[in-house]
Amino acid sequence: MLKKALIGAACLTAMTVAQAQAQQAYSDNKIKIGILTDLSGTYSDLAGKGTIIAAQMAIEDFGGKVNGVPVEIVSADHQNKADIASSIARKWYDTEQVDAIAELVTTAAAVAVREVSKEKGKIDLVSGAASTALTNAKCSPTGFHWTYDTAALANGTANAVVKNGGKSWYFLTADYAFGHDLQAQTERVVKANGGEIKGAVRHPFPNSDFSSFLLQAQSSGAQIIGLANAGADTINSIKQAKEFGITQGGQSLAGLLVFITDIHSLGLDTAQGMMMTTGYYWDMDDETRAWSKRWSAKMDGKMPSMVHAGTYSSVIHYLKGLAAAKTDDGMKVADQMRALPIKDASGFAKNGKIRADGRMVHDMYLAQVKKPAESKGPWDYYKITRTIPGDEAYQPLADSKCDLVKK
Amino acid sequence: MMTLFGIPTAALFGQLLLGLINGAFYAMLSLGLALIFGLLNIINFSHGAQYMMGAFVAWLALTYLGANYWVALVLAPVAVAAFGIVLERTMLSRLYKLDHLYGLLLTFGLALIIEGIFRQLYGISGMPYAVPKELAGGWNLGFMYLPIYRAWVVVASLVLCLGTWLLIEKTKLGAYLRAATENPALVQAFGINVPVMITLTYGFGVALAGIAGVLAAPIYSVNPLMGSNLIIVVFAVVVIGGMGSILGSVVTGFMLGMLEGLTKVIYPEAASTVIFMVMVVVLLIKPAGLFGKGA
Question: Which portions of this protein are annotated as coiled-coil regions (chain A) (predicted)?
């Protein structure tokens, strides 16, 4: 009897010790993921609250725990400002035991947080920001760029447009780092395909009246007016181009960064026929439809942008990395994330893989906006005309200026 | 081809015309602000939010009531004015005896709350609002393509501004209003209900913002922040024109719109700052503004 009790007690002790060891591998006995995004400004529809919902879904789908350790979410509004973003990131890492920061729309905010994360050896999962700087000069061993970037947008849209005969281009460019980067990437692709650049005008950011810039684009005689801007600036450019008879006059618009939320705001009547590149569309297959409908139910019937789906995909992959690494040490988790296959319920990241520079390379899609008659209702907006293989869409690794890439 | 500042004159005419159209919005909004400041001594920082509300009333009326643009043009200013009158009666009227700063802070806070509510309800991307069928299309003027709707905006704005100016300067009601600004106690002694008149003035000023919102809806994206992007420029216009000067704000609105239009061709990067540079210069040389009286 005594012997049995002793064995029982020994077993129990061993189990407790083992559990304690498992938990110690994750500091503070919990995993905390910070969603840092624009919750009130111009990008709060394409990213914003929807990305918090997406991250919550990722945690639920993973079972709420990593090897028995609970996962929590914190969120904050960086107001698209680099200084606010970096001070929140510092506070989260230093005093609130945050293990990773995800989403990060707006290049300036993403770069600021990247520097803090790199310094602290923490993981960042960039979804909403566009600039290729994140996988070049600003790359980090624990930093990932998940959803899209300016190179992929330019390679997708500009390639297709030039091949369809749109040889001469004029740019309307938002006058800040992102706009300049997007214009430069697009010019590179246009020229490589034998196209010609007629000129560009840099408009203030944000701006509401584009008629003056559109008139300059019109008198340039270029076949294609490339919109190297985003959000409300793109919406207003497209709306006013129609008003001034630019599209009816034979010139075409190429929206270089267009989200489904922009199309919803424009209406199909105005946006029809436009070509763009996207990393995700809700109505591609059963998987994307099922995931998007779950997200939609929590978001008053809206449909997810690529940033929403990308945030889900990046967070669930991070959780897989944590589970495989059996620790929350940033470097070890990052190694596991690079090694593990990328697949999740959102249907995002088809043929996805993570490169040494932190770029998550995956298939992109060339989409054309439907005519009003072709659409069955709200959010039925895109025809996917081509799947662009990841290696074709993104900057080749050999061209990366990231110092983590072995040359 | 003839050129001016290195730009073909035809293109220059086009840009001046576009500037005039933008100036129409500056004029309408700064007129309302000047009116409210002149008679109430309130710096109405919620003017941008009220402009946004005008555009949203148009969109809501179309979406939920099927009311077209012309109905909205009447409905929106009435709705926005009613809202303004409630604000004036419940909050602003308590501040007249205090420093300007209190009115500014209150209306600024209100603007943030109103914009926050709309953002919560409708998101940030904005809502589509089509140009009314009667005003669709455009004219080819040779030097540019002028959308009929833009021409309509200029005409509507000129009529509104001129009408308001006549009302204030040439009618008996306007005379009462001006008198009440100078000496409310004396005017009240003559049996005129000054508080009601002030309330209606605020309602009228705000209604102008509401109309401007409806006029803007088919051109700009109807979104909760559309007013906050514009209001700072409009304040600069009022300051340059002279606080409280009705004619000043209208003329300055159109003039600065054209100046901004020119800047967009000559050096586009400065387009968003040129008005503020003018403001600095005017404040240094003539602190009361171009049309202002006294300091």
Answer: none
**Both structure tokens of B192:** 């005129």
Q: pLDDT tens for residues A339-356?
A: 999 999 999 988 899 999
Q: Give me the count of residues in chain A.
A: 407
In a domain, A59, yes or no: yes
Average pLDDT of chain A to the nearest whole number: 92
pLDDT the model gives residue B142: 79
Residues of B within 8 A of A212 (CB-CB) are 15, 18-19, 261, 264-265, 268, 271
Q: Is A348 domain-assigned?
A: yes
Q: Do A211 and B18 touch (CB under 8 A)?
A: yes
With respect to residue A405, please indicate whether it lies within any of the assigned structural domains. no
Give the residue-averaged pLDDT of A169-176: 94
How far apart are the CA of B177 and the nearest CA of chain A, in angstroms? 35
CA distance B82 to chain A (A): 28
Together in a domain, A270 and A338? no
| A400 belongs to a structural domain | no
Q: Which domain holds residue A190?
A: 152-278+365-390
C-alpha B250/C-alpha B230 separation (Å) is 16
CA distance A300 to chain B (A): 10
Distance separating alpha carbons of residues B214 and B220, to the nearest angstrom: 10
CB-CB neighbors (< 8 A) of A201 in chain B? 268
> ipTM of the predicted structure?
0.84
CATH (domain of A215): 3.40.50.2300
Q: List the domain boundaries for chain B.
A: 24-228
What DSSP assignment string belongs to chain B? Answer: --EETTEEHHHHHHHHHHHHHHHHHHHHHHHHHHHHHHHH----TTHHHHHHHHHHHHHHIIIII---HHHHHHHHHHHHHHHHHHHHHHTGGGSTTS-HHHHHHHHHHHHHHHHHHHHHHH-SS-B--PPPGGG-SEEE-SS-EEEHHHHHHHHHHHHHHHHHHHHHHHSHHHHHHHHHHH-HHHHHHTT--HHHHHHHHHHHHHHHHHHHHHHHTTTS-B-TTHHHHHHHHHHHHHHHH-TT-HHHHHHHHHHHHHHHHHHHHH-GGGTTTHHHHHHHHHHHH-TT-SS----
Spatial contact of A93 and A116, defined as CB atoms under 8 Å apart: yes
Tell me: do A185 and A38 sit in the same domain: no
pLDDT value, residue B295: 44
